Amino acid sequence: MDSATDVNGGVDEPGWDVDPDDEIAPVVEMAGGQLRLWREGAGLRVTEFGQRIGYSEDLIRKVERGARIPRPEYLEKVDQVLGAGGKVAAMKKLLAEARYPKKVRELAKLEAQAVQLEAYRTHNLHGLLQTEEYARALIRTRRPAHPEDEVERMVAARVARQSIFERVPAPELSFVQEEVTLRRPIGGRMVLRRQLEHLLEIGRLCNVEIQVMPTDHEGHAGMAGVIEVLKFSDGTAIGRAEGVFSSRPVSELKQLRIIELRYGIIRAQALSPRESLAFIEQVLGET
Predict the structure, then answer these.
(1) What was the pLDDT predicted at 208?
(2) What are the Cα distances from residue 270, in Å, to 123, 215, 257, 276?
(3) Cα–Cα distance for residue pair 155/143, rounded to 1 Å
(4) CB 229 within 8 Å of CB 118
(5) What is the spatial distance between Cα 117 and Cα 174, in angstroms, rounded to a whole number?
């Protein structure tokens, strides 16, 4: 994790500024206010406090006014210096959601409410299926390149979404992956091997079905691109498919039927879940 030392000798960290219009801003502001009260209650001025925790005055002021999301290690250091007995460090849980990009938070919220997920991917493995190291390597391929600090933020957000596999009751999860996503060595051969092993582990969960669309299929209903459908307990759903409805999310029944029809045909054309696990094992053996 990169950091920079400022003229006051404290550590100032790039990124993680808060957008005032973001719905999470009040939560960060409230946490910052609590941190200021803890510091003042200890009779410490910002300068002295910064020297004790090893962070710049500027960063401390930003955190305390809610303009910067404090990192977990910042909260742990504050807790230690103030002798808060874990009360400050406990804010890590409160601020966990605030650390992730807004679009990811919105997606994670929908996934957390879904009772069924259907997803087809063409170029990369679905985010819910990715290992941390695969996700990191994949995000690093983007251009223009993201700063390393932002890469780690995005990886943490992606991994956090995978708590969906631990939900009770468990949602029904269906994934169809193009064969190429199992063979492209994102991050190198060993990263890919561990990723394939992870797929086999997840694919054996009773509520998860992973299917592979072989490259040697002459054509299939997913040639237009990515598809995803989320269904909720109240009977509503939201879906998106490249090539229809301007590739934007839709929730109208008539539009959803078209997306679900396409996904249903893709599943029928792909290898069965059992055949797919055997195929993944074969690819792992070849990798």
Answers:
(1) 98
(2) 16, 10, 20, 8
(3) 16
(4) yes
(5) 6
CA-based nearest residue to 222, from 211, 231, 213, 235: 213
Cβ–Cβ < 8 Å for 200, 284: yes
Q: Identify the band that residue 9 occupies on the pLDDT scale cut at 50, 70 and 90.
A: very low
Element (H, E) at 116: strand 114-121
- Residue appearing with tokens 């890469």: 151
Considering Cα of 161, then 165, then 171, then 176, what sign does the dihedral take? positive
Instruction: Give 166-204 pLDDT, tens digit per residue.
Output: 999 999 999 999 999 999 999 999 999 999 999 999 999
Q: What is the DSSP string of 246-281?
A: GG--B--HHHHHHHHHHHHHHHHHSPPHHHHHHHHH
The strand pair at 114-121 and 172-178 is best described as parallel
- The pLDDT tens digits for 253-279 are 999 999 999 999 999 999 999 999 999
Pick the closest to residue 72 from 115, 13, 140, 6 (CA basis): 13
Encode pLDDT of 65-88 as tens digits. Answer: 998 888 888 999 999 999 999 989
How many whole angstroms separate alpha carbon 25 and alpha carbon 18?
6
Question: Helices marked H in 22-178 — which ranges?
Answer: 25-41, 46-53, 57-64, 72-82, 91-95, 102-113, 132-139, 148-161
Return phi, psi of residue 11, to 5°: -95, 120
Q: In this predicted model, what pLDDT tens digit does every residue of 126-144 receive, in sequence order?
A: 999 999 999 999 999 999 9
234-256 confidence digits (pLDDT tens): 999 999 999 899 999 999 999 99
- Interstrand relation of 172-178 and 208-213 (parallel, antiparallel or unpaired): parallel
Question: Residues 6 or more apart from 179 whose CB is under 8 A from it?
Answer: 212, 213, 214, 215, 279
Residue 48: C-alpha distances to residues 40, 120, 139 (Å) = 11, 54, 39
